[in-house]
Amino acid sequence: MLNKIFNSFKTFYSPKFPVLITYMLQSSEYHVLDYLIWFWKTDDFSKVQKRKELQKTQVAKLILLTLRIGIIFQIIFGLSLIYLNIVNKLVGGWGFGLGVIILYPVLWSQIITIPVFLARVLYINPKQKLMIKNSKNIFHKSQALKIAVCGSYGKTSMKELLLKVFASEKKVAATVGNMNVATSHASFAKSLNGDEEVLILEFGEGRPGDVYSFSNTFGPDIAVITGISPAHLDKYKTMDNVSKDILSVTKFVKPKNVYVNNESNYLRSFLKNQKFNKYSKDGIGDFKAVNIKNDLSGLRFDLTNKSETIKIRTKLLGRHQIGPLSSAAILALSQGISIKAIEKALNGIEPYEHRMSQYELNGAVIIDDSYNGNIEGIEAGCKLLKELKANRKIYISPGLVDQGKETKNVHLKMGQLIAEAKPDQVVLMENSVLKYIKQGLDQSNFKGDIQIEKDPLFYYNNLKHFVAKGDIVMMQNDWTDNYS
Amino acid sequence: METIAVIFGGRSAEHDVSIITALASIIRPLELTKKYRVEPIYITKDGAWYSDPKLKDINTFSSGQIDGLLNHLKPISLSFENGLKIVKSTSIAGRKAYLKIDLVFPAMHGTYGEDGSLMGLLDMANVPYVGCGLSASAIAMNKLLAKEVAAQNSLAVSDYLSFSKKEIESNLSSIIETITKKLKFPLFIKPVHLGSSIGISRATNKSELLNGLEVAAHYDDTVLVEKEIPNLIEVTLPIIGNDQPRPSLLERPLTKPEDFFDFDTKYLRGGKKSKGAKGSQGYSEIPAKLDQDLAKKCIDLGLSIYKAFNLSGIARVDMLIDAKLKKVYFNEVNPLPGGLYAHNFNLLGMSNVELVEELIKLARERFKARNSLLTSFNTNYLKQF
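^ inputs. structure came back:
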């Protein structure tokens, strides 16, 4: 503890202190409350900025300049008080002066939130509202087929799959990467030419009402719901609220044009008596997934009904991909894309970086699923690990973030899922959820080796020393600095 | 927590290679086990011994901070009282700090380290250490002695001759005559003691031979001249173990005979750019693509050499194959392969952490066996005086 206080003390009074504060604000996306929570829960500031560097955007530069000038003035003011005490015998000059100097890190870490807050309320929010209004006009005037992709996980992958299959025969535009909030939708709308035949938008839920609001702006013809799991519970509070928000997209689309993941445990309970298109590892509708082969070379299967067969050959890993692939294929088929084009688009498709992508390290196979941040993804990873053959299986994860009240249950379940995968070694990180994962492992009588690491980044950087040929390492989720 | 001293650097032409072996392949994996306190002992090029936590950091060496650090540090000394202790000067009233060493992990290549000198010192201190013992190291690091031991054990070696530095300096023309009469070009000229291919040259005519002899004699007091094996395939076999040695994967460096491994190819240029695994010595084919019988011959020869030389812990046996005749020749032994040849053991399924742990286990086993031997017995010899 003393060591942490000493390290924080050193960081507070180092010339890099303004950079640290700006970094924390930037990582909190300039949400003052999130920043303040992070600031006051941190007990060792020397370890806050480990993974990333400050992006020197104009906003960041302005904040940095404000902090630097403010701190310099405060120090000068403090020194002036001390000087006046020495020269002019100013009463209390020493004490006040020293206090002013000592308190500058605490004062400026809080004062800086005022201009950030005002800028959001007075400038950013009105500007964003206007942008969103304009984007609504663009979307509603567009003649293109509009597909919304939403869910707690798997959105970016599903969007990319749809983009691939539709782009084989149509002019398509889709949001880039995981740019899935209102402002990125607005920028996307502004970039459109007007001659697009298909628009694909990813809806990233962050707080109650997001998906409803995005749906209202976009006006989708088709909706794909990739699954629901505990995420952003710090804002949504309950799973019921998450589900209601995500399912609100169905109010804008006819049931026959809604595609839902029937393997999602949370989602399934809302699907009874609904005439949606339900996809799963068994296929979709009357199209069944058969001749399934799943190993490190990828997932291959045939999607077949009485009259047609689509042969899907991908480099994606895991049976949980059958559902999304089937859904993308059948959705495209329903919109007139030929089977040949669908096969060509999907065949050879490779995993996206950090989403069950694999690479070799000292002869070992590392399955990097570090962008996975939900329990259903953990389940998919554990099932894949169980299915693969290896001399030694290693499972690594720090656990999940943003699970709110579900934190304990989700991590008990995670421990159970890991135990079911039967890895030889489990590597966990020393953090707030460790005890629950361990408890879950114990409850499932896990007999393998459990290794606890204090510094995840150090462990990841030294992973090459722990692995060799014949090993398969499943690496799921990674905590960013504001959660560490 | 036990203390393991990793000794590296040293008065050797392979000083820098030793630093990499110690820092990348030994110290880091040892620390990752979380079982040992690791004490780095760095021997400078002029033979002074130092120990400091900063010596575990490659940046200390790569950034050139090492000179500044050494100016600030005081050299350590050794105490053999009840095992091995390192003695550090402290700033408190000239007092000394003693640190008991439970096991030594030598990471020295070449002279005064890999050649048995350090092992003799550690034997005297009666401390367990990783790797080959004194006599095995001394034989292995003398290319001439190694060939003679192999030949005595009926293991195939290429035709060779040897000359002292004095002979070369005083009678060079007659030596060249003798060589050209008894051996056919192309030839390899090697200093008998140095590793990492330092001072080795290849000669295809008399003038290259003359030059090669002069270069080799510059590095060593004995020079070995050997016939090049035609239709050459070079292979190397890392082996781990004591009495029951276990071969790792047969490895084939992807170099042409005319580009035989020299120091630059091995360590500076990262090997020839070809297909294959990039090991500590550049690009290699692992396992070597040889027919099954030939691969078995190589592995058998490697293991026979390991036993004949009484090697222990870890070693790498280099062999030469005449691809046409399918005959395998012993070339040389490396009793402390650079980087522990971890890249090869990794492909066998042994991680870097497991490799250092296994070597520590083997060191303890050998130490126990050695200490169970009688080293003295009572006689009446002194009574007669």
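The first helix of chain B runs from residue 15 to 32. Chain B touches chain A through 14 residues (CB under 8 Å).
thumbs up if we can close this ticket
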